[in-house]
Write the structure tokens for this entry.
Amino acid sequence: MIRRLVLVDYVLLERLELELGPGLNALSGGSGEGKTLIVEALRLLSGGPGGARLVRRGAAEAHIAAEVEVGSPARRQALAEAGVVDAAWVASGAPLRLARVIDRRGRSRASANGAPVPLTALRSAGQLLVEVFGQGQAPLLCEEAHQLELLDACAGTGPEAAAYARERSEALRLARERDELLERARALEAAGSREEEERAALGALAPEPGEWDALLEAEERLEDAAGDLELLGRSVERLSDDDEASLALRLRQVLGELHRRGAASARRGEALEALEGALAQLEAGAELLRRERDAFETDQAEAERVRARLAAWRRTARQVGRAPEALAARRAELAARPDAASLRREQRAREEQLARLLPGLERRAAGLSRRRRSSAAELGRTVAGTLPGLGMPQGRFEVELLPATGDATGTSPALPEGTAAWEALERAHELVLAREPAPGGRERSRFTFAAGPGTELAPLSSASGGELSRLLLALASAAASGAGERVPVLVFDEIDANVGARLGAAVGDCLTRLAHQRQVLLVTHLAPVAARAARHLRVVREGATSRAELLEGQARLEELAVMIRGHPVTGAARAQAQELLEEARAAQALLTAPGDSGGGGAARQPSPREGPRKARQSARARARPAARAL
């Protein structure tokens, strides 16, 4: 049960606090006061989609928080298993505090009992705690996929249907991969030996990324070095003693002649010293040039290697019909792309996985179909039994299960014929293609309805808006009391839309019965429905702030009178409101009266026709004096 809901800086609301109680809680108020925002806030706390539009203009963040009482030990344990709460909370008996914050960039963060949790945890909590029936949901009843979901909810087969959907999704994935692998293998095989020759040539060359550019740079450098080598050779010959005309030899000859004549003067001695120094420097320079020349001659082996490598690149480029600069990228492309043989091996692996998966999928679908068939007739009887209490005494409702149609899981298998794996896959494919083509299982559901005995059963698309709203309420009642585990909180946003005041009491009685063992939150504009609520709140907007007022006594009477007639409120409207409240009390007394079997206070469920009729008779008798006084 939701005890408290707080909205801060949410859409148009600066702040709104809501205190709820057990049973049927009705929210009334004028249009634009914030009633539907409350319903949408509960969707957000259930992990629904958010967005920056939910943050009030001028605020940094929107805050939505709720305090939820979870009494069921099994449900508390399920929340722990879903990662919403820790084990200590399960045994504590404390309420669950859920919160969600959305910033102006649309980013969300969530928490449970003050600890951060992912949005998936909020979704799990929502699935366990609350179900929301929003505005515009009644037309969804016309969609067969939605009808099948409702049937599963009533049959308690929702988890089984979800498991089937997951397994089928996996089968489709395997089938798609298998077909893609088959197509790629066939394309490679059709290409013949051309690609294999290309693989071999590129494998022999083993081109590396960037190698072609490096070889071209080395070739250019070697061409420049050839000219340098020639110049160095000539320079060494002219300077060294190896040549008769070299500068060193000639300078040495000059020095010999001068030394033989002796130093005739100081100036000649200085000249001899200078010339001897020049000879030494000349010989040192010649030695340096000789070493550089020798080094160039040593690099000739590297030059030959570069030339041979460039020739190999150009030869391979001509062989494979590609530019030399593209060879390294092509080799990487071929290396990343498996060959036909490896693709065939992967394809066979996918087929063997499918062969193991599909028979189990067939068995799950068969079990799902059996439970759906047994529940479809029961759902039809349950909804049909609810219709008289909703103002359709001659209404009929049935659930049809039709063969599903749609896409199969892929093309035919391509394992070698005659093998055991091929035969198993053929049998599995035959089963799936014949009976498992649709996401929901073997069948699709179709709800049919007839408003009276003179009309034939027809799809719900032929029903009026008011009839669809009441059918949605009847189906929600059936789902809430079906074979699946009951969700403790049901939320209806104007479920009574398109339903006139004449049928409001019947809708209210149905909601009262629905709220007998759970909490129901209802946004309504109908006084007969609001009068049935155990707790009636009026949402009032004051500037940027809305507040929820608990209505009791005269305040509730006045609100019901406004809902009946509008402003100004008349005495007749007040009398009608009083009569509605008396009817509601009488209907509640019938609902909670002890049974006739001596069960000691067990609640008796009145029939759909008995409750409203007796309640109105009793209420009118009590309301006449009040009406005369007014």
